[in-house]
Amino acid sequence: MGNPTPAHHSPDGAARTGTGRAGPDPGAGGAGFIALDGVEKVFEVRRRTGRLRRERHRVRAVDGISFTVARGEMVGYIGPNGAGKSTTIKMLTGILTPSGGSLRVAGIDPSRERTRLARRIGVVFGQRTTLWWDLPLRDSYRLMHRMYRVPDAVFRDNLDRCTELLSLGDLMDVPVRQLSLGQRMRGDIAAALLHDPEVLYLDEPTIGLDVVSKAKVRDFLRELNAERGTTVLLTTHDLTDIEQLCRRVMVIDHGRLMYDGALAGLHEIGESERTLVVDLERELPPIALEGTRTVKVEGPRQWLAFPASASAAPLVAALAQRWPLVDLSVREPDIEAVIAKMYADRSAD
Ligand SMILES: Nc1ncnc2c1ncn2[C@@H]1O[C@H](COP(=O)(O)OP(=O)(O)OP(=O)(O)O)[C@@H](O)[C@H]1O
């Protein structure tokens, strides 16, 4: 796969208006609450080329990315492994300094004023916890309360809210190491919100979670965004996260922005398909259902592909009515496949 010039599709002008948040915000205007202009990040790495020889090598992790996110927007930031997503998020938090371009979050240059920015942002890295492994959640939160000097009333209010909405009540006195992945993730999300941040970066917040935990996390994020106007930038490999939460999605590959628009537009470009995995009571001939194509039959299980931009609900209803169903699930298209298709189409053009 090459590195074609970045093409910024924006098929339907995805929502760019935020819900807004009270309070003055000098230098961080609505449309450009998060603003990146030609941002680059180059890593110098040493590679072994012989028994004693090392060669310097440059990895262009982020290669000239520009976009803006308005206050209150909830935006998906997706791409294949190694595309540059985490590197972008690390620059947005100030952990990494860009090699080029300019970057502002709430009017602040993250790498120059990391501490000042820290009060206004929250970060959740799904693969890592910010909680203390041996402490119960309650004690982790107490420590954070002191470390980040969160005013008592704000802390109490946020903790009560998160405890209720993320169902943490019964978990407060359990050491983090004994929590399930889904419980720990909910604990981490609460930790990121105790200081009332205006921006929340989420890196794979639903990775490895079961269906029920995923739904809980998604419901919570939706409510947080709607009620508090929290701006959310969400990195995920699960397109259902995007579908249920974000009206706008940005796709990055090889450090470049490939797409910026609605998820439906991405599916159209990628002509991607979702798959209904249908378990029948017995072996039957391939199902013929309008709007789907049976791609595989294995005993009583059948796989039916349908356009990802179409709704699954009427197909599920028709199947349930006309075939003896035992179980049914919807499999999402693979992001890598969608992006590969985008590249292939562009090369063909
Ligand atoms: N500290 C580092 N030193 C050297 N190279 C790095 C460093 N961090 C990231 N990279 C490289 O930069 C590129 C982008 O990595 P990044 O972690 O941002 O990708 P990603 O889109 O988040 O991937 P994933 O979905 O796998 O987490 C990769 O080629 C990676 O190997």
Automatic annotation (TrEMBL):
Keywords: Antibiotic resistance, ATP-binding, Nucleotide-binding, Transport
Renumbered residue ranges of the record's region Disordered: 1-30
GO molecular function, one term: ATP binding
Membrane topology value: Peripheral membrane protein
Domain ABC transporter: 47-279
GO BP annotation list: response to antibiotic
Composition skew (Low complexity), residue ranges: 13-25
Predominant location category: membrane
One protein family per Pfam: ABC_tran
GO cellular component: a single term: plasma membrane
Localization terms from the record: Cell membrane
Descriptive protein name: ATP-binding cassette domain-containing protein
Species of provenance: Streptomyces genisteinicus
